[in-house]
């Protein structure tokens, strides 16, 4: 065989794996398993089976010399995984959907590892899988597991970079790195400002929750979960009115589309004069800024500056948004 023919044959074949990759697949799979475990209660059962099947084949291909899937095969497996995730989530994009898609793609990653870059991407995916488990639980047990998983994944990273080292040596180094990072972690935990809301703006899937909402779907309250999160606190200048008179009006549903009730964008105007039967002055301090309504008692006579009374006797929050200072109201006890 001529040199030209040999080069032509190598060009048509698949690119050889780098020396650093050889023998690293089992360690990469162990890191991905550590990232998958905390997601198992929140994702469909077929996803762990999918991952273990693909990871098992990648290890067998490494040990037994089996052929790795071609790019076109991996492409169709990717489409299949995405389609199955969409079907399982019923088209709902939430935390469970993101975790399912992440774990499904992590199952495919070891099948395309061919160089050092692919190794590091796989390890970073394992890190991200562990961190994303906080979407579902932030308990003490989960925190302890996360620390343990991070030590293991860091040990895999060290082992991949220095193949001559043993796994015990890598674990010792990873543990030492984690121990040195704990003081800085505590400082950031107590002094770093908290982010109000979700990191990615995706809310978890859950049952209907008691509380305030801009829409009302009658069928969604079959499994009602109580919410104890306070929205606002009220202080009265005089005696607290009786419970039947403590009616705080936040939103009035007027439009129905066959599935949900919504407030009208242009509520009808106020008809006739409001009969005043005694007034009550009170102050409302909002515990959250994630609302776009004020909650005056029925029927409001005086609202904060910048607020306009709507035709359904509801009030939008001021243009500058909800502030920390309490708002003063005066209402009729009609």
Helix/strand layout:
Blueprint (H helix, E strand, L loop, with lengths): L2 H10 L12 H12 L9 H19 L6 H19 L5 H14 L7 H17 L7 H22 L5 H25 L23 E2 L15 E5 L18 E2 L4 E2 L16 E8 L13 E3 L24 E6 L2
Antiparallel strand pairs: 1-4, 2-5, 3-4, 5-7, 6-7
Helix pairs in contact: 2-3, 2-6, 2-7, 3-5, 4-5, 5-6, 6-7, 7-8
Question: Your description of this structure?
Answer:
- By secondary structure, the chain is α+β, with helices and mostly antiparallel strands.
- The protein is 41% helix and 8% strand.
- The protein is built from 8 helices and 7 strands, in the order ααααααααβββββββ.
- Helix 2 runs antiparallel to helix 3 and helix 2 runs parallel beside helix 6.
- The longest helix is centred in the middle third of the chain and has 25 residues.
- The protein starts with a helix and ends with a strand.
- The N terminus is likely disordered.
């Amino acid at each position: 065989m001529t040199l030209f023919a040999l080069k032509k044959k190598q060009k048509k074949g698949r690119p050889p794996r780098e020396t650093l990759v050889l023998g690293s697949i089992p360690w990469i799979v162990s890191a991905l398993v550590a990232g998958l475990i905390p997601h198992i209660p929140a994702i469909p059962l077929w996803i762990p089976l999918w991952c273990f099947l693909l990871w098992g084949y990648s290890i067998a291909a490494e040990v037994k010399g089996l052929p790795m899937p071609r790019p076109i095969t991996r492409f169709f497996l990717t489409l299949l995984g995405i389609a199955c995730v969409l079907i399982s989530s019923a088209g709902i994009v939430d935390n469970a959907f993101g975790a399912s898609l992440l774990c499904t793609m992590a199952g495919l990653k070891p099948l395309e590892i061919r160089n050092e870059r692919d190794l590091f991407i796989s390890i970073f995916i394992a890190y991200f899988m562990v961190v994303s488990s906080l979407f579902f639980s932030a308990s003490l047990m989960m925190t302890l597991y996360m620390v343990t998983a991070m030590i293991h994944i860091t040990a895999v990273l060290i082992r991949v970079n220095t193949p001559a080292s043993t796994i015990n040596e890598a674990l010792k180094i990873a543990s030492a790195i984690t121990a040195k990072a704990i003081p800085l972690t505590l400082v950031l935990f107590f002094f770093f400002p908290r982010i109000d809301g979700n990191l990615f703006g995706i809310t978890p899937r859950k049952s209907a929750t008691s509380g305030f909402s801009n829409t009302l779907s009658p069928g969604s309250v079959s499994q009602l979960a109580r919410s104890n999160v306070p929205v606002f606190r009220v202080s009265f200048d005089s005696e607290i009115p009786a419970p039947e008179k403590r009616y705080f009006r936040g939103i009035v549903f007027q439009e129905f589309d066959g599935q949900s009730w919504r407030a009208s964008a242009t509520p009808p105007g106020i008809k006739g004069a409001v009969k005043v039967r005694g007034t009550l002055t009170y102050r409302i301090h909002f515990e959250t800024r994630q609302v776009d309504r004020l909650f005056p008692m029925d029927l409001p006579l005086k609202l904060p500056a910048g607020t306009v009374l709507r035709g359904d006797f509801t009030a939008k929050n001021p243009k500058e948004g909800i502030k920390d200072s309490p708002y003063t109201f005066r209402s009729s006890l009609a």
